[in-house]
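Bug report (template v2)

What were you trying to do?
Predict the complex of my protein with pyridoxal-5'-phosphate.

What happened?
Run completed; filing so the output is reviewed.

Input:
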Amino acid sequence: MTENTRNKFFVEDFEKLFKLLNKDENKDKNIDKKNIRLKRTFEDLARLSLMDATYNSGMVFNTECCKPHPVANMAYLSFIDRNMCKEQYPSVTLMERDAINWLASLFNNKNYSSVKDPLGYISSGGTVANIVAFWAARNKERLRGGKRFKIIVPESAHYSKVKIEDLLGLKCVSIPVDEETQIVNVEDVEKAIDDETLGIYATAGTSRFGLIDPIKEFSDLAIKHNLHLHVDAAFGGYILPFMKMLDNEVPDWDFSLPGVSSITVDPHKMGLCPLGAGAIIFRDESFIKAYRYKADFPKITNNSLEGSKCGGAVAATWAMQQYWGIEGYKNNVKNILSIIDYIKNSILSLEGVSLVLNPIPTNILGFDFGSNENNRIILEKLKQLGFQISGLRNNSGVRIIIHSHVKLEHARRIINCITELHNIIVKNKEELSFSSFDSVLNELKVIQGAEPLVFEEEE
Ligand SMILES: Cc1ncc(COP(=O)(O)O)c(C=O)c1O
């Protein structure tokens, strides 16, 4: 194995496992063969792991997930063997109740304190939570004898919409977004509502730009037409409340609006939990009752779409709330906002560069380097340098997501690289070719340490 810290991690694990499995060596005649297989398996794991960039490399700028907090990791591992079954693992049920109440309170749902059961559950992710929201809406409609089946969905919504349509037999009516603002027109949404409309799918923190739909206006429509208004805050749910606490202007989007029926949020995105932790929260119990299932064996009341579910996700979500709490998440967002300001101001000081959307709604920046061709070149070259980064549709911009794993030195590195690339574009306006970048790319690789994969020790 080559000498890098990621591999060391595997070597150490291998050695620990080796000792553990060899404790009873005299009893096992096949121990030598097993040891060879163990070694080979771990060598393969180490090799496979080398394919992925680590968050610590500071090169990852395109994911909505982020490096889990060590407290969340530890909590996850401690409960990794527990299922969501009240009789067998009451601890997980207790933590889930607390975790959902914490989120309900964060999203201004006062009902949680007066009900026996939690107003939602920790799902395996945001897609599942979105499906469950409309599962409840559809079943509520059936229970009241109604036949409404259409959902109004802004074009910018996450592709959960496709699965909702397919699995629940609902029809999504797509509303195009305004080219300039990337947000739907409320009048277009209202025009699309008819007698068959069951709900609206809103987003607080879109995947592409982190935008917030006009949820206050949607809420008014939901009240007026008796619709289920679901807010997908998978990405924005752990940012927007804290941005507001930090005196940033954030429009109302949560249960403080009377028309909001349900909210999705992902602890495994900005909640800094390991993957496998999403959440759905309803306004009141009637939604859960519409799909809840009483099983005979084991004798449980199941309020989730999943069957077996890892207790680790619940423990991680709960532990972060207890350990970090509101203050911790607020400080996290504060740090992210200061890095955003630094990157934004540095890149905007370059000639001819502008923001694709201004003001920036959350923690996604889109830069336009003057033309689609410039954007394409900068994006491609950044990728060649090893950055994980994505572009906007038709090369209309370069998109950078700032998370807590992006430290000041990482911000400096990407700013330096972008500045160098931009300088070449400006200098060679007339005769720009990809080879114009060759020498600077090589230099940047050495100076910035920006090899395609940079492996640093995980904390
Ligand atoms: C707005 C939004 N909703 C839903 C999802 C889906 O979440 P998950 O990947 O946890 O299923 C995402 C993730 O990309 C998202 O950005």
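What did the reviewer find?
The two ends are 21 Å apart (CA to CA). Residues 325-348 form the longest helix (24 residues).
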